[in-house]
Design goal:
With about 120 residues, this protein is mostly helical. It has one domain. About 85% of the residues lie in helices and about 0% in strands. It contains 3 helices and no strands. The longest helix is centred in the middle third of the chain and has 37 residues. It is elongated.
């Protein structure tokens, strides 16, 4: 592995750690901003939880995707002078990490709405 690849790997890891914290903050804000409605009838309550989970998933997806797209774009500009294939590999790795984290946060947001 070349020095450039090692440097890019470390940069991707550092950037992802920062992005992960921001994604978590965004997810917490979105989930807490959607009011919970508890019904006395258990079936109505479950139905309400499903409605809330749909809203949660939509808002989470939109906001996390907005942040991730901006972060990925900023990273692409940062490494604009890096030659291929190292540039593409670093971008792909960062994108995959962001996608995986977003999926986890959206699943957690859904579980939070249904199980609590």
């Amino acid at each position: 592995m070349s020095n450039l690849q090692v440097h890019l790997e470390k940069r991707v890891e550092a950037l992802f750690n920062d992005s992960k914290r921001e994604l978590l903050r965004i997810a917490e804000n979105v989930v807490s901003s959607i009011p919970r409605n508890a019904k006395s009838n258990p079936l109505e309550n479950l139905s309400e939880k499903f409605n809330e989970s749909g809203i949660t998933i939509k808002k989470l997806s939109d906001e996390l995707l907005d942040f991730s797209n901006k972060s990925l774009s900023d990273f692409e500009k940062e490494i604009d002078t890096v030659q291929e294939p190292e540039k593409s590999n670093a971008i792909e790795k960062y994108r995959d990490l962001l996608i995986s984290e977003m999926q986890d946060l959206i699943k957690e947001g859904f579980r939070d709405r249904i199980l609590k």
